[in-house]
Design a protein that fits this description.
The structure is a single chain. Helices cover 78% and strands 0% of the residues. By secondary structure, it is mostly helical. The protein has a single domain (11-375), classed as Hydantoin permease. α2 runs antiparallel to α10 (207-220), α9 (190-198) crosses α12 and α15 crosses α16. The longest helix is centred in the first third of the chain and has 34 residues, at 85-118. The structure holds tryptophan. Tryptophan (TRP) binds at residues 21-22, 24-27, 95, 98, 219-220, 222, 225, 227, 313, 316-317.
Length: 433
Amino acid sequence: MENNRPEWSSHLSFIVATVGSAVGLGNIWRFPYIMGKNGGAVFLITYILLIAFICIIPLCSELGLGKLYKKDVINTFKSIKPKYAWIGWLCIITVTLIPCFYFVVGGWILNYIWVFLTGNTAHNYADYFNSFSSQIYMPCFLTILFLLMTAIFPFRGVNSGIEKANNLMMPLFVIMLLILAGFALTLPGAKEGLAFMFKPDFSQFNKTMILTALGQALFTLSIGMGTILTYGSYMKENTNIVKSAYTLILCDTFIAVSAGIMIFPIVFSFGTEPSAGVSLAFISMPQMFAQLPCASLFGLIFFVLLFFASITSGISMLETTVSAFIDNLKISRKKATVLTVFIISLISIPASLSFGVLKYFKIFDKTVFDLLDYSTSNIFLPFNTLIICLITGWCIPQFWKKVFGEGFIGGLFNILLKFIVPIILIFVLITGI
Ligand code: TRP
């Protein structure tokens, strides 16, 4: 079976695909507003330190597991010890639940692309968004449409589907982001926006902010779900893991910061709250675009950009499940994709309806959408990451030597992997719950 395992056709394709997975709504939509809420520059500095010294460890662990075992996530843990298979299943559950809410947002993005494409722009986006997202049929239909558009690529396979999609969409994505960021810098609020991002206000430094930064860093790297492990299992034999991991982190952070440079000058030019939350992308941004010359054009670029970011992440979520289904249920890639799509559509429909008819249907005091978002990001993600660190640190002999090498850095990373990162993750988990 191993001989049939696909392989990225080049190192660059591997990096582009992992960056495509990591860069998603988390960078463009979540990062700027979380940074806005948590004091701008101080948050940015904390975030960079955490991602470079802490999150790098589980990232390398997942890549290392992929490279060493070359299997899907369930068989990887089975190979370490048969009784660890449940960890693989847990990752699969998590990575199947994430698209159930993520793709609802994907459906909204499709709707906004349509709005700006046809020039049917609204006057008041707050009213528009609320009335649109609370409908029954259209949001569900668009969620499923987004799911199907994403599923085409894993359906076609690693080289002719996933790799091609990323190699096409990621460069376009970066170009559009730089165009919008460049344009934002010409606006009157640019200076204020940049000061907000880059001038530290140390009074904002506190425990909650650190935990938020860590949670965001873990989420944006797509770790804790076996996705990076799966993409890593297609890597070429001679790939250097630590170098690839730092390249990934560098690209991801560059894109998140560029997204901030795109958003904050616009926010400050029009006097909106930088911490506007979910509504930032779907209410404030379109509202502000509407006041610019060429409103439809900028709006369209912004939402196509969000579309590319979310679809390349979506592809990696689906591929993790598809790859596990192929190897564990012994079915073809095409059947595995259909099964994955079926499961996700069942759960994503109530998630989509939680903005309308199911608004008051609550589990643990949360709507279906919020429950999926909260439990995957705050509970499953840190928990799975913790287990992955413990297994790679303590249960696989010589793992760190194979992945980090032996020198000073290798030794330091070994200590981080075995002690420091697990302790931090336990702390994150406790506060998350
Ligand atoms: N990293 C993605 C983003 O920033 C979100 C994400 C979280 C993800 N977990 C994932 C993507 C697992 C793919 C697979 O938007």
